[in-house]
Amino acid sequence: MKTWTRAIALTLAISLAATSCGYILYPERRGQSGGTIDGGTLVMDLLWLLPGIVPGVVFLIVDFTSGAMYVNGRVAMRADGNHNLAIALKDSPTPRSLDLSVVTKSHKVLDHKLAAVGPAIHGQVVQLHVADTHEAIFLRIDDHEHPAMQLPIDVL
């Protein structure tokens, strides 16, 4: 009887761990280096502090260092005379097409480029021109497989 109870408890703990870690729940967020913290993922990770310090700290470290804790990332550009924004694309294990646009808050497209990513393409950089505007500007990324992502651009 004790072995069944332990087996059930262990199975429950492993399945709970697998479903409460942002790294597993949101693989598309991996690699982000900042942005808005996902409150739900943070609460799930903090709840792991109840059974012990070690599991809670491990989940927090994994989610923050992988970037899975962040809902969206940040893009920053340096204000220079050229008004160009260079986007370094990450390598992708699967080939796909990315639609990159710089848009204003009122949805006016300032520049637009298509880029291909895949296992044979490495270190690709896409240049987008950012015209002078007094509106907030955003980088819009659409891969036609997931919902489009829009990241605010901070002008430094």
How can the largest sheet be summarized? 5 strands, mixed
- Give the overall form: elongated
Q: With helices defined by DSSP (H or I, 4 residues minimum), what is the helix count?
A: 4
Instruction: Tell me the radius of gyration.
Output: 20 Å
SS class: alpha+beta
Q: Which spans have pLDDT < 50 for at least 5 consecutive residues?
A: none
Which fold name corresponds to the CATH topology of the largest domain? Immunoglobulin-like
Helix content: 25-40%
Mean pLDDT: 78
Write the CATH architecture name of the largest domain: Sandwich
* CATH class label of the largest domain: Mainly Beta
Number of strands: 7
Give the distance, in angstroms, between the N- and C-terminal Cα atoms: 64 Å
Indicate the topology.
Blueprint: H1 2-19, H2 22-25, H3 39-47, H4 53-66, E1 75-77, E2 84-88, E3 96-104, E4 109-117, E5 125-129, E6 137-142, E7 149-155
Parallel strand pairs: 1-7
Antiparallel strand pairs: 2-5, 3-4, 3-6, 6-7
Helix pairs in contact: 3-4
